[in-house]
Amino acid sequence: AQTVTQSQPEMSVQEAETVTLSCTYDTSESDYYLFWYKQPPSRQMILVIRQEAYKQQNATENRFSVNFQKAAKSFSLKISDSQLGDAAMYFCAYRSPYTGANSKLTFGKGITLSVRP
Amino acid sequence: GAGVSQSPRYKVTKRGQDVALRCDPISGHVSLYWYRQALGQGPEFLTYFNYEAQQDKSGLPNDRFSAERPEGSISTLTIQRTEQRDSAMYRCASSLMGGEKLFFGSGTQLSVL
Q: Which chain A residues touch B45 with a CB distance below 8 Å?
């Protein structure tokens, strides 16, 4: 079974600075998807960024980028030019590429990010 | 609909009562998932459907929990004889068949008194 670990429960960043959120995972599969989801105080689940394991290039979405290290099974999220609206809980998640019983998302416990003005 | 719709938004019930939580997925989305999220924790998988077929119910904690999707669209998660430990946010998500992106609803916050 796949597991996702987010070992930092909380982080803080100064507005306009850069912060990196860590995530590691364990799997025996060679192909899979990785995601970062944002959960603001409203408790919506918002997809921030995704990465296909077969792609070597790190995904980027505006101020958000990932550092995907497949051999190390590491998937960190970098937020550049942090904004007050980035304050939220962030979840790392893993998904097998296959349909059927293995297609569920497995989430980490999350990290709470606060942004200091 | 434009997004995944869940109802009710909030549900307060007394211990021992049954509750039914509804999920209306995005039109055309074949796959539907139920998750449970305790405060300060990550979502925990409960069960999953493709069309009307329940593909995986390994996450249902015990036999008080059940889910159905009889016509392959709307799904209902039922909790019988609720207990205080059932209190949590229950989230539904949907996706295209084999689609890697899951779209989440706003959730139902269940409180069992």
A: 104-106
Helices (H) and strands (E) in chain A, counts: 0, 12
Asked if B104 and A101 come within 8 Å (Cβ–Cβ), the reply is no
Number of CB pairs < 8 Å for A and B?
57
Residues A67-87: tens digit of each pLDDT: 999 999 999 999 999 999 999
Cis peptide before B8 (omega within 30 of 0): yes
Do residue B55 and residue A101 have CB atoms under 8 angstroms apart? yes
Residue of A nearest to B47 (CA): A104
d(CA A13, CA A86) in angstroms, rounded, equals 10
A13-44 tens-digit pLDDT: 999 999 999 999 999 888 899 999 999 988 88
* Spatial distance between the Cα atoms of A67 and B27, rounded to a whole number of angstroms: 34
Chain A nearest C-alpha distance from B104 (Å)? 6
Q: Is the pLDDT of residue B57 over 80?
A: yes
Contact status, residue A86 vs residue A17, Cβ threshold 8 Å: no
Report helix, strand or coil for A15. Answer: coil
Least CB-CB distance to B104: which of A45, A108, A109? A45
What distance in Å separates the CA atoms of residue B36 and residue B41, rounded to the nearest whole number? Answer: 10
